[in-house]
Write a sequence for this structure.
């Protein structure tokens, strides 16, 4: 098998940085570092002269408006000079040895020539607060901004934890983002300006827990579109920007452990896996034996040949009880910066992270016949899962004056190794008592590499940014094993394995194995050019750019079903009674015993590709001192093809013209009024259009795609009042409207007692919502203690309604769009004492009930009941370079309940509604220690 070189290349790059370790630990003088931006637009100012008063030391801002000056410890006054802007003089800039002092500055154009020579003075503290305030209020659209300074002060260890603190955003399952109550399929993510592919091949979503927080420069959650942004989102566009050249050398190590209230100290079942499972990858122990007969001629083999082939496969099917694994996490991050002559700099950021957790979940699953309330099945599941998240990141940046070149790489592994043990009843013509198991290892590996260039051409006043990017996603399911036993004489009776009876019978759903491999390669590039100019005595900007992205995916799978001849079933019934750890022993395999039937269909494998080409023209116009309009148009040409069995089963292409406008009127220096309108799209994923059928044990049903899916088009409108009373504080009140043309929804029906899940377009849908957000320090009480607290919250109320296609024969009552919650509540209280190094946060989140699966006239929709989440986090600086952190998540630990609302009273009633499934996650307790060198 061909070896994958991508991760090896990244590790070699990471090892190269060890040559710079002496820079990390070397004694370092103090530094003054920051960013200079325009007061009105928030644009970075390039070429600003920064000078330390009374010395010859200084710097010139680079292509991102940043500067760094090395100085000895002391207190300084720093002057900022830029042609056409008022000079600014910042006093009381205190510098300590070995640590950078951050000084971000905003500069303003004079309102008259007479004021051009006036020097504006401010203290360092006041200027830093002003810069932070300007950063928040000068976004060019409706957005939430998390600055590098905010991230630096927080104890969060990854991007997902940072996003938990953002008003209006909710994190589900510890890593998936929900904005304004919309399902995660309506979000989009970019990394350093390049589109990020979904980290979950079977789901349109992105896992935000793979990036350590200390390598993040800033995060912006855009809720409204402008032409320069990708056009595929309706909830939120999350822009994650990683650091290039750090202000100072650093090296941090974090070690931690955690426990779960319903896992730790309890019985924990697992099976014998591979030697590299702890790294999230299979060592080859599970893969299909290379000597096993190929798919195209297997079923034509003789019985003896099939029996011999069965003996080539692993016989390890038993699950044994043991203690739960020790949960642990490790994070190592370092960075260096070295400055050469002529304003040249070389810098790097490197990180390793590893997290392993074991979790036990008890689930109840049932399916009802709607007409009389009788059950098709009623199962109790015990699910034991080892989850591994491992990753490496390596960024290198070279900067020379107003030119910058960055090479940014990341490699992440996410895996789950699951043992599912099921008991219960299935009600067909007879009542069957069921005992079954599933052994399931899945590993996702994602490599991402970007080459990014930033250039400024002073004579033409044009800023150019380009990027080329490549990502490679591999998903491996090497040997999924299922085994079902039935008994008709009570739960303590005799159980028979549900294997096939006959040479070409049986199903891997009941007894058998499944293998799959997915490879997805994404190639992309983008180019943006911005020119600033004066018009109407105000700064204006025109921006033009585009991108191209190509995706290629190959998916292959193979299924094997355990079976035996009818004569074997008749003459040797004891064979069918053997337990899981003995039934696959070599002596029980052969022509007159068990062997495998191959039911693999041509549609079980596919190849697919997509092409996205986009271009835009954007204007950023300032009219007077108060009115700013960002407007323009974006065009996206998209095509998507999927072939199965050498036949094209899906081929769609669309050209979308996506206009947008964002109007900001400054009522006063601290208050904005925003009006925004845009058009965006939402496209189906490959899995959603592939006819491949897969039995999902979590849903107890078959999932397959719909090749008739069409892309959705969304019209968005926002009106928002924004008040920024002080740095870090905000009050906003807004209303928003969204109209969806052909929204994509997840649907289900029931065939012969088994649910089948797929996807479909509704005709239209609309969402009308109101949103209130605030973040306020409690210093107005006049208490020295309360001034260290910050209260924040976001409440959104949304009314959503779906219109069905004309030929729709499903549920006729009005309902919201699938995945849309009627309300979202986020809230928190944060305590920060910089002097003692104490930081504590209490977070609360709840989303309203939402449609989990769209039903039909015979089987009503399945709803997800509201589930409140309460988290607590406290960190304490132990001494200068060390910190300890305690986290408690899901404190309430309420059951997750999914149900059919039979009495239509819009909430779950245990007596009157049909419960489809429920489970608890348990409360998590985590403890970590961080040391910074």
């Amino acid at each position: 098998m061909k070896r994958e070189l991508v991760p090896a290349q990244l590790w070699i790059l990471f090892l190269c940085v060890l040559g710079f370790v002496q820079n990390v630990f070397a004694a370092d003088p103090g530094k003054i570092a920051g960013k200079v931006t325009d007061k009105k637009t928030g644009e970075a100012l390039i070429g600003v002269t920064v000078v330390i008063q009374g010395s010859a030391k200084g710097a010139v801002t680079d292509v991102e408006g940043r500067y760094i000056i090395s100085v000895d410890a002391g207190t300084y006054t720093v002057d900022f000079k830029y042609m056409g802007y008022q000079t600014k003089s910042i006093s009381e800039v205190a510098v300590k040895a070995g640590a950078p002092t951050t000084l971000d500055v905003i500069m303003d154009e004079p309102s008259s020539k007479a004021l051009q020579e006036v020097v504006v003075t401010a203290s360092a503290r006041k200027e830093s607060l002003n810069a932070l305030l300007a950063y928040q209020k000068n976004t060019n659209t409706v957005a939430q901004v998390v600055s590098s300074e905010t991230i630096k002060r927080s104890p969060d260890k990854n991007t997902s934890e940072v996003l938990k603190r953002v008003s209006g955003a909710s994190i589900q399952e510890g890593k998936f983002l929900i904005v304004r109550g919309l399902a995660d399929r309506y979000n989009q993510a970019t990394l350093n300006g390049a589109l990020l592919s979904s980290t979950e091949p079977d789901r349109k979503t992105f896992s935000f827990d793979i990036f350590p927080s200390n390598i993040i420069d800033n995060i912006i959650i855009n809720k409204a579109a402008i032409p320069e942004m990708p056009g595929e989102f309706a909830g939120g566009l999350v822009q994650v920007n990683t650091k290039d050249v750090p202000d100072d050398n650093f090296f941090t190590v974090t070690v931690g452990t955690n426990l779960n209230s319903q896992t730790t100290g309890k019985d924990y079942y697992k099976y014998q896996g591979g030697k590299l499972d702890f790294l999230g990858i299979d060592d080859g122990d599970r893969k299909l034996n290379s000597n096993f007969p190929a798919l195209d001629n297997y079923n034509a083999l003789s019985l003896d040949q099939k029996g011999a082939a069965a003996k080539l496969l692993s016989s390890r099917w038993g699950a044994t009880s043991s203690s739960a694994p020790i949960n642990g996490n490790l994070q190592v991050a370092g960075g260096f910066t070295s400055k050469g002559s002529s304003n040249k700099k070389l810098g790097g950021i490197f990180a390793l992270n590893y997290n392993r957790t074991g979790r036990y979940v008890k689930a109840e699953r049932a399916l009802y016949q709607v007409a009389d309330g009788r059950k098709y099945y009623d199962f109790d599941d015990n699910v034991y899962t080892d989850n591994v998240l491992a990753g490496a990141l390596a960024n290198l940046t070279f900067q020379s004056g107003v030119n910058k070149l960055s090479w940014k790489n990341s490699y992440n592994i996410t895996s789950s190794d699951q043992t599912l043990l099921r008991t219960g009843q299935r009600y067909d013509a007879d009542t069957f008592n069921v005992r079954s198991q599933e052994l399931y290892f899945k590993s996702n590996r994602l490599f991402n590499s970007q080459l990014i260039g930033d250039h400024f051409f002073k004579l033409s006043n044009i800023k150019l940014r380009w990027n080329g990017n490549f990502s490679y996603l591999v998903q491996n399911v090497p040997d999924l094993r299922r085994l079902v036993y039935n008994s008709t004489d009570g739960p303590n009776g005799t159980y028979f394995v549900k294997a096939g009876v006959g040479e070409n019978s049986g199903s891997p759903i009941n007894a058998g194995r499944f293998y799959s491999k997915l490879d997805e390669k994404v190639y992309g590039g983008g180019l943006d050019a911005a020119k600033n100019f004066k018009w109407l005595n105000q700064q204006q900007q025109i921006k033009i750019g585009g991108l191209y992205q190509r995706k290629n995916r190959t998916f292959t799978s193979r299924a094997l079903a355990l079976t035996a001849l009818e004569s074997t079933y008749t003459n040797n019934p004891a064979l069918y009674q053997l337990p899981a750890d003995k039934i696959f022993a070599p002596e029980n395999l052969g022509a007159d015993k068990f062997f495998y039937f191959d039911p693999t269909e041509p549609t079980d494998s596919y190849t697919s590709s997509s092409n996205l080409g986009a271009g835009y023209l954007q204007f950023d116009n300032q009219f007077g001192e108060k009115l700013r309009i960002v407007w323009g148009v974006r065009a996206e040409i998209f095509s998507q093809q999927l072939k199965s069995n050498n036949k094209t089963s899906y081929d769609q292409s669309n050209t979308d013209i996506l206009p947008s406008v964002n109007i900001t009127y400054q009522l006063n220096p601290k208050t904005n009024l925003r009006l925004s309108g845009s058009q965006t799209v939402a496209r189906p994923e490959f899995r959603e259009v592939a006819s491949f059928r897969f039995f999902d044990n979590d849903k107890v049903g078959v999932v397959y795609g719909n090749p008739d899916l069409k892309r959705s088009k969304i019209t968005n409108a926002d009106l928002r009042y924004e008040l920024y009373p002080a740095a870090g504080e905000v009050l906003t009140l807004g209303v928003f409207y969204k109209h969806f043309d052909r929204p994509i929804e997840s649907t289900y029906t029931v065939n012969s007692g088994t649910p089948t899940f797929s996807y479909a377009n509704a005709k239209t849908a609309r969402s009308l919502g109101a949103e209130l957000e605030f973040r306020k320090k409690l210093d107005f009480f006049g208490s020295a203690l309360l001034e260290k607290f910050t209260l924040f919250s976001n409440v959104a109320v949304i009314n959503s309604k779906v219109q069905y296609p004309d030929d729709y024969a499903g549920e006729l009552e009005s309902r919201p769009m699938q995945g849309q919650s009627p309300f979202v509540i986020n809230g928190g209280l944060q305590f920060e004492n910089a002097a003692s190094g104490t930081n504590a946060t209490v977070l609360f989140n709840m989303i309203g009930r939402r449609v989990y699966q769209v039903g039909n006239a015979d089987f009503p929709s399945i709803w997800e009941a509201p589930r409140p989440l309460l988290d607590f986090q406290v960190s304490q600086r132990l001494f200068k370079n060390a910190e300890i952190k305690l986290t408690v998540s899901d404190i309430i630990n309420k059951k997750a309940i999914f149900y059919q609302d039979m009495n239509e009273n819009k909430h779950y009633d245990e007596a009157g509604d049909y419960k489809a499934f429920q489970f608890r996650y348990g409360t998590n307790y985590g403890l970590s220690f961080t040391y910074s060198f």
About this structure: The first strand starts at residue 30 and ends at 38. Confidence is low (pLDDT under 50) at residues 1-27.
